[in-house]
Queue: 2 jobs
Job 1
Amino acid sequence: SDLLTIGGKTFRSRLMLGTGKYRSAEEMNAALEASGCEIVTVALRRIDLDQPKRSILDEIDWTKYHILPNTAGARTADEAVRTARLARAMGLSDWIKVEVIPDAKYLLPDPIGTFEACKVLVEEGFVVLPYINADPVLALRLQEIGTATVMPLASPIGSGQGMKTVEQIRIIIDQATVPVVVDAGIGTASEAAQAMELGASSCLINTAIARAGDPARMARAMRLGVDAGRDAYLAGRMPTLPYASASSPLEGIVR
Amino acid sequence: SDLLTIGGKTFRSRLMLGTGKYRSAEEMNAALEASGCEIVTVALRRIDLDQPKRSILDEIDWTKYHILPNTAGARTADEAVRTARLARAMGLSDWIKVEVIPDAKYLLPDPIGTFEACKVLVEEGFVVLPYINADPVLALRLQEIGTATVMPLASPIGSGQGMKTVEQIRIIIDQATVPVVVDAGIGTASEAAQAMELGASSCLINTAIARAGDPARMARAMRLGVDAGRDAYLAGRMPTLPYASASSPLEGIVR
Amino acid sequence: SDLLTIGGKTFRSRLMLGTGKYRSAEEMNAALEASGCEIVTVALRRIDLDQPKRSILDEIDWTKYHILPNTAGARTADEAVRTARLARAMGLSDWIKVEVIPDAKYLLPDPIGTFEACKVLVEEGFVVLPYINADPVLALRLQEIGTATVMPLASPIGSGQGMKTVEQIRIIIDQATVPVVVDAGIGTASEAAQAMELGASSCLINTAIARAGDPARMARAMRLGVDAGRDAYLAGRMPTLPYASASSPLEGIVR
Amino acid sequence: SDLLTIGGKTFRSRLMLGTGKYRSAEEMNAALEASGCEIVTVALRRIDLDQPKRSILDEIDWTKYHILPNTAGARTADEAVRTARLARAMGLSDWIKVEVIPDAKYLLPDPIGTFEACKVLVEEGFVVLPYINADPVLALRLQEIGTATVMPLASPIGSGQGMKTVEQIRIIIDQATVPVVVDAGIGTASEAAQAMELGASSCLINTAIARAGDPARMARAMRLGVDAGRDAYLAGRMPTLPYASASSPLEGIVR
């Protein structure tokens, strides 16, 4: 009953997975299964369009997962727009995760290019999920033009540094009218739980699972972490106190 | 198969619960059940020894939980020792959680008094679980004299401030030959997960569950958080990187 | 000899002050003096253009300070551009601190509007100092179009939350070709020192001084903090070690 | 007029320096001078007692500094007590910095052994400055038996990890009746400032200066940092706000 709704579709799982960096297709599929995820993102550039050889599309049972093509590799708004159109033309999906990333060292998204690409794609009828830095005003402006989510980063892609943008994500959530998906930087399960406790609607995780010692076990840890954080958020946490507070009354001690 | 062993007994759950501060016995029992815990701690001073009226001992189905009496309220080693002896004489248990807390504002444990009480109680054959500040040398000395665990605090009792002693707990775990139970200060599920990811063997939680908006749901969140953290620890997390690292190869983009 | 150069001018002090929120003109002037600052920012909207009554411009001895008009209150690029032109037309300065802030609750800057305003103002020959969220790609794009600095925030204006954007500011500095001025959110002297230790060129501080118990003393604290951080940065700090390292050789003890 | 008083002596400087790890006596003396310190600690084991060759005692102009012998290298209370007695017998000082450190990896102090040594030495009339983990109850017990200060660590000796024990040090200061000297772990100037802003009376620093690229410059940075933090503490910092707060009134904008 606690469902996630994006672009008119509903999902039971609040954990989305990426498909890069796995050591094998078997390991990837074991992780997808253990994670309980329903949405899986795929970089369009990893799909070889002209050749008959096996691509990422053939490795995954798409009857079980909702595909979310992404524009990874696009450095400008134009490149992102063209990638999205191609994904739709191929019949993959009219959902698109917009990534506009000009720089290869930090892989941080360009707010100007991302905003431009989203404007075009929303007008063309795409369900647009933009990957952004944790900038609350950018998030506001994107939801105002009609994106289906906002996807702020926790820390740089693939860094595993965890929740380095807590205060900004807190503000984004406070102002959100669309689901907030924390995307990039989560390195371990407690960080996924922390994102959900802030009130995020979902987490998208790739490297932390693919590069764990045991990806399937880490995928399960992430599923548990997301569920733990969501439950804690809905349960309503105790107030944080500056001092201690005895667990039981102080009278009655044996002296 | 991933069992916790303390004092010769084995447990499947790595979450221990306290029994103070619940709004009702029903709420407490619902939380105990939702948590999946097997060890429950009770302050001996909350047991009315002379009177027939209903005490905390009557509220809980002790066929389902292992009782861990504690010396909450003891301000000196002597008081703690006397409380432990009384608990054993009553037939409650020869396990004892040692708390020696001289001060009511911060409720922090006394290292000198705790060490003295533990020395006496270990010699008298108790299974001793000392509650301590996150002091690695104190933890070393306690395990050397034969305590069954060490129980360092995350932050002051009942404060919900979370993991404020991460670096010290990391050292305690690195040096431990007995289970390390993080006790006091955990406020929400991600913090329980974080404790387990550091390599703690268990968490003991009271106020964060009892004072949550919905205690049973928070108890479930804590169970999931402990399991998530344990799985993440065993899976082996990705290395944390100072920079970003692309989730998929950078060639092949649509330009 | 360790000078700060902005827009062709050089400064000895690396601390800039704002002029809002002081309890009196005397208190403000005492703080300006104690801070040793050379650049002082003034909101153009606080200057009453038509009336003869005393404004902020009359309160400060402008022979001692370089004035930096700002566009505080502008919610759009257009409003910011008009404010800058007005400041120049009045003969105040062709320097302009660009603030485009659509929202009154968090007072965070709009990346899209800020970028647009800066493009126009750089082309019109202004020396442009944009106030931005700590977004490394936005900072890159602004310096590429010719802004004289970038001014990322540490945390929301007037919040005193300190350095909440450390990792992003670290990246901004790593990529910078213009001075990086940490602006907004610094609450106390150690935070100014921390900004400088990251390699920032300067700090701009207002509320933390104006709202301190003793503004002049806090102004001096900030001056010392900026100098301390700059010296530490230039001295080159020791490496951070995961373990301890004895201060002196371990042989020779009295046993 | 803002003087530090320890054991009946008053000092203007709130920065104490150690003497280990310098690359040369010249570098050490330049750092001592630049730091403005008045109290300098020396490990007694570094003083060769029987031989005529030059020791650390000959390198420093003791007419300018107050010597504080320490018991570095002592692993037990007995060894610390013997070292203190020897220092007094040599005519060095009846001040003693008590370090009881059983372990060479983390170099953390033993609370039990430290307490025992201090009890003996206070009774023998020494001015006792104990180095301790940041344990508030241990600090309380030590000041109760008559130590002249308490010296909690920020993080492990020589690690440069900075203020990892903030919350515990805050409590120690809240309860202190003697000067609190933050000792060990400070890695850079902002961290010294932060310690002073918490209300510490003084900082003792060694490795962060001795192992800086330019020790004399870092010594100056530390002096400035300590002064900045002390001024900020005395000035009274602004409250930290969860939201933003405009630096100037919001009316009057050019629209």
Job 2
Amino acid sequence: MATNTPILNQAANFLANLEYEKLPVDVTESAKRAILDYIGVSIPGSQQPVAQNLFAWAEKRNWGKTATVIGRKIKMAPENAALINAASGHALDFDDTSWSTIGHPTTVIFPAILSLAEEYNCTGKQTLLAYIAGLEVAHKIADLMMPEASENGWHTTGIFYTLGTAAAACQLLQLAKEQSALCMALALSKSSGIRSNFGTQAKPYHAGMSAKAGLEAVSLTLSGINSSPTALEDEDGFIQCYASSELAKIVKNMAKPVLFGSPWDITHRGYAFKKYPNCSGNHPACDAILEWLNKNPTPIEDIASIHCGVSLLGPKELVCDQPKTPTEARFSIQFSLACALTYGKITLSEFTDEIILSPHIQELMSRITMGVDQDLARLGFIGTAPVKIWITKVSGEEIYLENNLAHGNPEKPFSDNEFNAKFLSCCHELITREQAELLLKDIYQLDKVKDIKKITNQLCF
Amino acid sequence: MATNTPILNQAANFLANLEYEKLPVDVTESAKRAILDYIGVSIPGSQQPVAQNLFAWAEKRNWGKTATVIGRKIKMAPENAALINAASGHALDFDDTSWSTIGHPTTVIFPAILSLAEEYNCTGKQTLLAYIAGLEVAHKIADLMMPEASENGWHTTGIFYTLGTAAAACQLLQLAKEQSALCMALALSKSSGIRSNFGTQAKPYHAGMSAKAGLEAVSLTLSGINSSPTALEDEDGFIQCYASSELAKIVKNMAKPVLFGSPWDITHRGYAFKKYPNCSGNHPACDAILEWLNKNPTPIEDIASIHCGVSLLGPKELVCDQPKTPTEARFSIQFSLACALTYGKITLSEFTDEIILSPHIQELMSRITMGVDQDLARLGFIGTAPVKIWITKVSGEEIYLENNLAHGNPEKPFSDNEFNAKFLSCCHELITREQAELLLKDIYQLDKVKDIKKITNQLCF
């Protein structure tokens, strides 16, 4: 392919030539686990206020009945179901993270494709292939623009996965190459989301907005609204607006084509999965303390104080010293460690007003401090959140723990048992253990599912 | 008001305190003329492919019947009617331009407010006030970010009028101040549109997308989706993402509040209206040649050649030397002048395939040249498109014309007769002269209209 082929045309060629049977097994297996993780977290997420609010909004604006809304018995139009299901998956901030975007891929692309797949009676294999296609397009294009796009202030989930959703939908619907390129170009004009709206329902809404916008870019293009296939790298295009004009020029003059699928981002860079339902900045500390407690069972009354040394990102992310609500508790290393010390686990069950406000937990949190560690500060704003922990016992004994990387990162991947345990714990209060295990089994065999409704039917409850 | 009040809270205070009776008369009269101009151009625009395509798209996605779609007999949900009517107003690139945004205000804000006003049985006065409110908020905030936002590559119509529409809707619905600020903050996360998609249906679609997004920001907020009222000037906020972090810091540290309504942008800086249905870069040349022809009727066969000296923006905007289609002809100074010489006018009637492809026009265009003039180049990328024209007659006689500013700009405003003539000429093929004159009269008396349906009923045809 000539390197002067516009990148969206290159992406459209990639989409047109994809075949499930030619995908590496590690790619399809990794994708299934990301889908498993998404479906797991979207189940409790579907009961969160943001999902309830979007459901109420969409009920008034509904125009179809073909797509399942997770955790509801009412079907909706695909674009509305995608909106709600995407926000549900991000509502607890418990979903996967791509290191290519520092954003959340599966909670946008998968629910959008699931809705379309249900409408078009697709197989599990078709659904899985489209999801993998959209991921890959979004991430190879994000690679050209990161970290600038994130540094500029964008919510990368909002800006890259509108494109990823459009690409996935083009693949699922098997559009002609020219039309796929135009769908993706229109998606570029529909990408938004600013990070200053974080800490509110707008954050998970951005995931839903992006899923809906990606599907709308496709339906609008199919209705005849055209656009420019060079809108990615051209002057005044997506790269210039969201990253910089310097980057846009470099990309426009690249001597080699974009290598979609070689290697595959999902296995090459991989995704981080969350073991705990709180800000990922807590995770290395949570791993370290739970591992230590496991080996050294210690009564709380033996602990005088705990100090956590964190990197520069610590005080930016973990902003709640004495949280009073579940939302605040997710951004509190004090709550995370108090919870670990008290319950020996950090799961959805502990994020309740009752537990957070209990005098015992509030008192315990006051003995836990956090501060930037000078050594870790030298690493800059490192997203992996390395931590050093000093535990001082009442006896005067001091214990030192450290952890550079949380379990669930690509370098320390979840085992299948861990994926399963997270999934079952997410489902726990909403469906029976038997239902959850059946769903789990079907997702692991997604490529064997002849009709995607076999999956979606299990999500209406 | 303390200057540390977030700007969206300042805007919300402004909206809450507005009263029609306290508006200066020149503001309300100017707003009526902008609305007249919008309704005029949206009437033929409603028959353009982009409006037809969006209508077909929205028909499948419709969920209400309260809002008029201009030029159609079917009513739709307000958000869908706003989408189509906004794109209709911009479809011919014949609508007003704000010098505060270099974008198109009325075609986004007015149709959105018209749809809501119809749903809520509002008066003409309420509709007019809400439109004025939204304009003012969008333009005072754009003032903080221009020209950077435009230079970065954004379609300013898409990014500033999502906010303007949300502000106008908050005023119309008389929301509490806190809720208005949140609606506007969510609108900031829904703003998009890149200029590299220009020259396609995406451009008028951006106007529609923006109108719909502004209304959705309001309905989503009313459904409980919250956001951050400091999302405009805060770190990673709207100003940082769409302009620059330097500007965001300056705005955050401003020593004085934003002066909404003092003075009013619509009368202080004013809007440019288009006399001809083509790119505004043609307009000074069109004015000059028509004025000269009027005073010096000249047979075409007497003209050997015409050369237009333009500023640096000329070759960027007027890219079609020998157009073959109406869309191309709108970006051709050759067609504009050939049309003027042949027909003595440049109206919608001349933008037909038949006229553009006629051997006579094609031959005449080949005698007309355009080039950057060294003196005009020194003015930079000046949006007013100054021109120098050299007409060489077959006799050898040379005539020199120049024009620095088109008629319809704030400094050379349309007379009421010109507003009326443009309106009637826009309506000409679609409604009767009698109907057009009644509509015109009612728009001039918009503040006296007791039910906005008196206007909208005239737009269903």
